Each structure stands twice: as C-alpha cells, then as structure tokens.
Amino acid sequence: MKSIQKWFVLLLGIAVMPAYSAILMKPIKDPDLQYKGELLTGTYNENITPPDDLLGFPIGSRVADPTQIHSAIMHWAGQSDRLQVVEYARTHEGRPLVAVFISTPALLSELDTIKSNIDKLANPLNTSDSQASNIIDSLPAVAWMAYSIHGNETSGADAALTAIYHLIASEDKDVEALLDDMVVVIDPMMNPDGRARFAKSLEQYRGTAPNVDDQSLLHRGDWPYGRTNHYFFDLNRDFFYLTQPETVGRVEMINDWRPQLMIDGHEMGSQDTYLMGPPRQPLNQNIDPNLQKWAKTFARDQSSAFDKKGWRYYTGEWFENWYPGYSNYSEYRGTMHILYEQSRMAEDGVRRPEGTVQTYIESVHHQFVSTLANLKTLDKNSKAMYRDYWQGRKNNVASKGKFANRTYVVMANDNVGRTSALVSRLLAQDINVYVADKDIEVDRATTQLGEVKEDLIIPKGSLVIPNRQPEAPLIAAIMEFDAGVNDAVLLEERQKTLRDGSSLMYDTTAWNLTMMYGLESVTVPENITRNVSPYSLSTPSHAFVDNAIAWIVDGADDRSVAFAARLMERGVHVRYIDRDSEFQDTTFNRGSIAVTVTDNPNKKDLAQTIKQTADELKISVTATTSGFGEGDLPEWGGKHFDLLTQPQIAILSHGNFASYDVGATWYSLDTHLGIRHSQIDVNSLNRTDLRRYNVIILPTSYGALDKQKQALLDEWVKNGGTLIAHGRSAAALANKDGIAKVKTIENSFEKALDYDISLTREYMAGEDKVDRKAAMSHTLDADYTFPWDDLPKPLKEDELTRRDKWLSHFMPSGAMVAGRTDQQHWLTAGTPEVLPLLYSNQPLLMSADNSEAVVRAGVFGPNDSKKKTAGESKKTADLWFTLPENKALNVRMSGLLWPEAQQRIANTAYLTRERSGKGQIILFSGQPNFRGAALGTNRLLLNAIVYGPGLGSQKHVSL
C-alpha cells in the first residue's frame, strides 16, 4: 500500500510541475522597469508583419537571438518591395551574415548601376571632373548601418531590427522622402556566434524576478563571454588584418559599396550613459580632414535628437581614432564613420547610481533614434559630402600630394606562404601590388630600424607598393613604419603616465603589416613605377621523380611546419634538417622538412600522401634521388637530419586564462596546422590524464596556477613533456617560486651580474673574429682579463629593484621592438635575424646559463654618435647589462615606446627554452599570435608545438 501511495504522489508531482513552473517563472512586475517611451510610432503597412508578432515578444523587451533576427528579416524580404537581402559571409559556426538593402523599388532595381557609378567616382585616374560632377548629381546617398560586432552588446542588433521594420513598413511621409534618394544598408548582427553564446547565457541565468544587478551572471555571462566570435576574436580589431570570415566578407562588401556613412552600434559599461562621435585625439593623420568637419555636423544633429528626449550623452572623451583596425577602417577609404556606445545591460535593465533603473528597451530606443538621426543628416548633406569625397580621392593620387613620393617595398624572400598571405590582404583592400622585374637601385631608403640606407639595391622579386594610389590613406595607415602623433598628444600621454598610469591610447600603438608578418621592408621616398609588373599569384610546382629516395619542403616557408605536422598525423615519419643544405643542385634553407623512403618502408602510396598534403597547403615539394650533400653541407644519414615526434597537443583554457589568447592559439592550430588538439578546462586539470599529451600550451592568464597544478605540470615536463607558456602564464612559471629556471626581471636582481655575464657570452659567441696570436701562444698570458673585470661594480639589489619599479611605469600599450634571433636554434627556423616583436605591458624574462635565450629584445648596431654614450663606456644607464664597446642597441621599431621602457625591455628575452628532466619549458614573454596577425612570432609558436617533442625533449626508442 505504501508503495502505491509513493507512486501516486510522484505522478501527481509530475502532473502539476508544469503549472507550478509557469507560476514560478512568471515575471514579477516592477514599476521601475516600465519604460515610458514608445519605440515604434506612426502608421505602418498592415501587410508587413510587426516584429512583435515574429519574435513572440515586444521588440526591445528581450534580446532577440540570431535565429529570430535572421528569420524576421527573411520573412520581411518576402513581404516588402523596399528590401533586398544579400548574404555576404558565413561564420565559423555556419550562421549567415546578411546586408539588408533598403530603398524605393526603383532605386533597388538600379543597385548595380549605382555601385558602378560609385566605383567611377572612387577612381580619379579614370574619371574627369565633369564626369564626377554628373555622377554626384545622379547618385543617391548610401549609408552602411552596422550593429553588435560584440555579441554581448546586444541593443544594437535589436535596434537594427526595429530600424528595418520602420524603414520598410512606415507610411510616414518623412520616411518615404528619406528613401526616395537614399540606399540604406543595414548590417544587423555582425557577430552571430558571439550573440548566440550570450543569448544562451541569458536563457540559463534568467530568473523569476527582474535582476538589475549588473554584477550578476545574467548581465555578464560565462567564460569566454559573448563579446567575441567562435575563435574568441574581437572582430572590431580585425578590419585590415582580415583573419576572420565575418571580417573578410564584410570588408569586401563595404569596399564594393564605399558608403558615405558607416555607423557602428556598440555598448560600454553598464553605469555609463551614451557616447557618440566625433572622436578625440589621437587621430590618425592619414584620415581625410574633411571627415572631421562632417563628424561635428552629424554629432550636433544626433545630440539634438537626444536633447528632445531628455537623454544624457557625451561625445568623444575616451574614444580615439589612431589604430586603423576598428570599424573606422572605412574612414581611410573616405567614409564618414560614427561610433555608438550605449551603456550595456541585459534585458532586465540596470539600476543606476542615482537610484533609477534604465531598461533594456530604452537602450534599444537610444540606438534606434541615433540611427534615424544620422540618416536624416546624411540626407541633408549627401551631395556636399560626395564633392568632398571626390576632392579627397584626387588628392590621394596628386603628383604633389602628401602620398606622392613614397613607396613601400617588401624585400624578396623565400617565405612564399607568408608573403602570399600579405599580398592577399592587400589585394582584398583594392591596393595595387607590384613585383620588381629586376634589381632596382634607389638613392635612399629607410629600414624598419629607422636606419637610412644610401644607394640601396632592391632585389628582383621584391614586392613594390607605391603609396600614390586611390587608396593611399589606407596604404599609409597599414604600411608606414610609424603612425604620426602630434606633440600635444605626446605631452598629454606622458603627463598621464606619470600622474596615475592612465593613457590616451585605447589600443596598440604599432600595427604595421610588414612588422606583424615578420617580413623585411623598407620605405623609399619616391614613386617607383619602373621595372615593375603587377603581382600575380603563383601556383606551387612539384619536382617528383619515380625513383626518389626523399622528398623535401623548404623550411623558410611557414607552411613547411604544417606539412610536417599533417604527415605525422597521417602516420608518416618526418625529419627536420637543422642546417642549410643542397641536394642535386637544389638548395634548401635551415629548418626544411624531409621525408625518406628508409624511414617509411611500410607506408603504401608514400609519394601520393606527400603530394596530397603539399597540395592541401599549396606548397612546393622537391624529390631527390641522392642524399649526398654538396660541399660541406649535410647528408641525409647524419646528425643534421633529426627525426620528429608527432605532437599530441592540449591547450589549457577557462578559469583565469585570457580568452583572446586562448582563441588566437586555437585559431593558429586550426588554421596554420590543421591537426587535432584538445582544449582542457584548467579547473579539471587535477583530474586529467596528462600522459595523453606531449605538448601543453598555457595561453596568457590573469592569475597564476596554484602550486598543486604547477607541481602536476612540473612532473609531466620532467617525464618528457613540452610545456609552452605565454605572457602572464610564463611569468607565473618564472616567478620566484615557479617551476622554470628562467625568471622575471623583478626576480633576477639578486644575480644581476650572472645574467650580464651570460649575455656577454652570448654576444661573444656570435663574433666573427678571433685573436689567432693569443690562441696559438705557447706562453701564459699574465695580463689575461675576464669579461667582467672592467665592468663597473654592480648596483645593489635594492637599487636595481627601485629603478625597475620606476621604469615599469612606462611599459607600452603595444609597440614594436627589434628582436635578435639565435639563428642556430631550431625554434627560429623560418625567421629572420631581426624579428619585430610586439611588446605591451607584459612580463620581461631573464635567461642565464641554465636556459637558452632564443630571441632577445634589441639589435646591435654601430655606435655612430659623436657624443659619449652608454655604448662607449660599456655600461648602459647602470642597469643589469653591459653593452659591447662601440656598439649601440636598437630597441624601438614602431609605436610609442618611452625611453624608460626601452631601458627596461632591452636585452631581456622574448623567447626562452630550458631543459627540465626529459622535457622542456618554452616561455614567450608576450602573445605570439596576437590577433591572429602576428605571423612573424606565430612561426616561433608553430615551431615549438610541432618540432618541440622531437627536438627539445628526450627521444624514446620503441622496442
């Protein structure tokens, strides 16, 4: 009987649960959350379905997810003749990205003609003034309205949906008049993957009562949060790097249409108000000054619209336009750009300091009103803006203009894959790229180190990019070695740094493409057009023979690392050649990859597998029938052909790890290698069987691993693992109690002299001269001196600590530092002797005799200064290191790097490697794949991952 009663109670509970849940989840009414404003007003076409009906809730009352937004747009596309939808890309997760073209049916039928006329207006080389005038008279205004590039900044996309409905369904005369002479392109949701992630977290943390606490998970979401895309990339930093499909498709369409106006709807801190343009200084000096004039016009009208509603706002203040990778990228092509920054909140709203509650629908309303205000301003000023645009385009190609006598040259090199990647980025942005048909001598050129070279020879095969082109401002912005900044900005930045450590700089201060790509480049002060021809993409060729005994891919090409990794994953044994080599009249660079028949006796279709892998990567393979190395170059059976070990890779993530760097590392593995790997939640590390992996990567983090986790990794390394750490994760391992022998600079001063002696030994090992008389002497040199004998007495530890604390205040927000690479180390295969390194406020690493400094900050050069300098006295600023006699150290390459920061960064190690038991620890001072675009340092990371298990860890022989 009791059993029957239990079942009855259980069944009753199941029956009433839905009803109980409905009561539980019914929102509690809160009078503070009842927004008094009206989002949509006026008369609307009854044949077009209102958004509330399509979404199932009042628009702006909740966050519409990507599926709901896309479905509503496609539904309207079947109802309205004012709307056309164009899909311009798909996200990594397969979600569509669309541009919604809105205008009158007549103008929508003429879109191809309109775009063709805009193209003509953009090219003053083929269009006359009279033709331009006629085009301007005929052209409608064109606006590109884009929203929610950060997925957790949601109000923009909901406002976009509101704007689409309003523009296609409104029967008000002002809307009809607006569309009579305007094409509005709405990019409603720039980051669907991130929005989907955030929308899911809202669903998970939504409660019965409205939650207006902006610290709750409802408002913030979970790691990695909704801001970024699938690979955790900030899409609003990618506009000229073009690493993500969302950006590639969007930039292509924006560049095709060259809109007069582009707005970008964002959100900011939840306790803020509303920011709108124009931006403050620093402004990139390549932007057409006319755009700043129009920025003020748009700001006045937008602020007036807010004043009428009684809404608080401000312009500029913290927003600057120096870095060209934001959505203001369009300004470099002549487009007026406006940023919206609405205070961020989830759908329940947020309680403000004054005690009021700002609701989510109010945020949507702010974005919607801003949209309409900007469109009205454009409608009034379109013709005048077109005339300014035409004048700007003419200035770009003027024979005496600011861009007239300047050419950027990328020196010929063997890294075909990386060079091709650079060219593809430039061509995608309508930049003309040429190739030197033969050696070209120029009178003068400036190197990336700031050195002026006279009578320089530009080798045949170099890339030549004249600045005098229609897209001249964009070319200058992304190719010049230094972005100009005025003295007032520099002074204010210095004052802020000293006063409280704040900064005017919102982002990195260095971004030059050739430096990011690690390609040698010079700037020539002339317009080079002779002895060049347009660049054309080449197809790889294979030199295969039937009786081959080995197949080799050149190690200068980044794709050689992926070639090795993919073959190993397919069960092929692969070797790494650690010296330059030559076989049958074909030369190969250090780091080349060889596959031999003797290593793979049972591998069927070996040649076909090699060809398939090479074709996937578009890299050339050379077959050889002889393993004899010409001259003193290595043979295939000697010690210079190292057998590699297949990497089994894990990336630690979640917890305190920085999602940007986790994502960039993940992206590098998928994009550059295309091999299997695992992400491991650091919170479950203690329960993870680490024996499955021989490579573990620790991206940079905001908190150190606890001692238990470090001990776990330490044991794993000693058993043969390769541990790779970036940035602050590297600092945790190099801390006083960390498991690495390498130490951070603040933990090194106790043994400052030892580090200096180690540095001296490294320098002396690279000298190309020897005292033969002393070496062959039969007599003991009674006057022999040790390298440290003539050094000043080292400062005490407390004084070095005090000085370092002072210098640390001046660390950059992102500047390019000249790196010198150990060209005999396997980690530097495929990298030049001088490698640009991106430094920010990151840890500085110190390497002595118990570790290897593979890449150091600073490149030695002659000391040409007439005044007595640190180089002449052999000591620099009484820090921990010594400079060789008559040598200077070049540190800064690009960006804002205060002298104090140069002093602190100089001679520290960017990349270190140390043995630990049977394994090794590899530390990067910074983030080697910064924004997926730092291809120069990313090569170091790829080498560490793929070659580390075979070259740096103790090999095991299977019996």
Task: Write a structural description.
This is Peptidase. Belongs to the peptidase M14 family. Residues 62-375 form the Peptidase M14 domain. The chain folds into four domains: 43-396, Zn peptidases (Aminopeptidase, 3-Layer(aba) Sandwich), CATH 3.40.630.10; 407-534, no CATH class; 550-643, no CATH class; 649-766 and 788-951, Class I glutamine amidotransferase (GATase) domain (Rossmann fold). Helix 3 runs parallel beside helix 7 (155-169), helix 5 packs antiparallel against helix 6 (129-138) and helix 18 packs across helix 19. The protein is globular, with a radius of gyration of 31 Å. The protein has 28 helices and 40 strands. The chain is an alpha+beta fold. The strands form nine sheets. Strands 27, 28, 29, 30, 32, 33, 35, 38, 39 and 40 form a ten-stranded mixed beta sheet that branches. An eight-stranded mixed beta sheet has the order 1-2-4-3-5-10-6-8, sandwiched between helices. Strand 29, helix 21 and strand 30 (722-726) form a beta-alpha-beta unit.
Give a quick precis of the structure.
One of its GO terms (molecular function) is metallocarboxypeptidase activity. With 959 residues, the protein is of the alpha+beta class. It has 28 helices and 40 strands.
